[in-house]
Amino acid sequence: MSGYDRALSVFSPDGHVFQVEYALEAVKRGTCAVAVKGNGIVVLGCEKRSAMKLQDTRITPSKIGMVDNHVCLAFAGLNADARILIDKARLEAQSHRLTVEDPVSIEYITKYVAGVQQRYTQSGGVRPFGISTLIVGFDPGSEEARLYQTEPSGIYSAWKANAIGRSSKTVREFLERNHKDGLDRTGTIELAIKSLLEVVQTGAKNIEIAIMAPGKNVEMLPAEDIEKTVEKINTEKDQEANTRRGARGGAAAAAGQGAGAPSAQGAEQVLASRPAGEGSGAPPELQSEGISTWHWSMPQYGSSIMELHEEIQGLQFAPELEPSYNTPAYGYETLT
What we know:
Layout: H1 18-28, E1 33-37, E2 42-47, E3 64-68, E4 71-77, H2 79-100, H3 106-119, E5 131-138, E6 145-150, E7 156-158, E8 161-164, H4 168-178, H5 185-197, E9 207-212, E10 219-220, H6 223-259, H7 267-273, H8 284-288, H9 305-311
Antiparallel strand pairs: 1-2, 1-8, 2-9, 3-4, 4-5, 5-6, 6-7, 9-10
Pfam families: Proteasome (PF00227), Proteasome_A_N (PF10584)
Region (Disordered): 233-288
Main location: cytoplasm
C-alpha cells in the first residue's frame, strides 16, 4: 500500500482515504441498531450482546444514550469511541442551552456530531471514530419526529427508517419492503422489533427498545413487553407459513385431479392403440411390414449372439434400421 493505508491525511492514487474506510468496517462489525419513524413517535432498537455469567448487567453501558431530554442517540461500532462522542454531544447541547436559552434542534446536534467525526479524518496524530450513529428526537414545539444518520467520514443524512451495524443491508431492505408512512405506536414498535429479528437469533433477551414522543422523556420498553411482541410476531409468522403450505398443497391436489388416473390397460393394448411414431416404439417402415409392436423386451444380458440371431431371423429390416449384432442388450420380437 506504500503507506496509503496508514496515513490519515494522505489520499491513495485512486482517491481513497483508507483509514476512513477501515472505520466503516469497524461499524459493520458492531451490533445492529435500527430507528423507525411513526406518527408522533420514533423508536430506536438495538441488538445487545449476551452478558457473561459473572457480569453485572446493571452498569453495562447501553447502546442507546441520551444527549438531551429530547434527543436520543444509538450507535454501532466501537463502544469506547461512542462514549467520547456522546460526551462531546452532551456538552455541546448544554452549552447551546446556556448560550441561547433554547434546547438544540435535532439537525443542529446532528451537524455538530458529524463535524466532530469529520475533523478526525483530516488531522495528524488522530484516527477516525469507529462508529456510526442514529440520532432521533423532536424539535422544541414540533410533533414531527426527526431521524438522522452520521458516518465516520462526517456524512449525515435524514431518513424515515434506517439500520446500521452488522447485517444492516439486510435489515434496511426489510424496512424498505415493510415501512409505511403514518404508522401508529404499536405498528412502529413492531416494525422495529421485526427488523431486528432479521439478524437477532436469540429473541427478546438480546433486544433493547427506546421510544420517544413529543414533550415526553425517553421510554425504555420493558423486557416483558418486548417478549410479548416477539411471541406475537413469531405466531404471525407461523400462521403465514401454514397458510402458504396449505395453499401449495391445495394447488398440488387440484393438479393431480385434473391430470386423472392412468388407465389400467395392458401394455400390449396401450402400445397397439398408439399411432406409429408417437410413442408406440414402432417405426413407420416396420408398421407397414405388419409388425404391430416394436418394443425393447430384451433377452438377458447373458444371452449369446446366436440366440439373438435366431430371434430376429423372421424380421424384414430396412437396411438403415438393421441392428448391430455386437449389442446383445437389444432384442426384437415379431408379433405377426
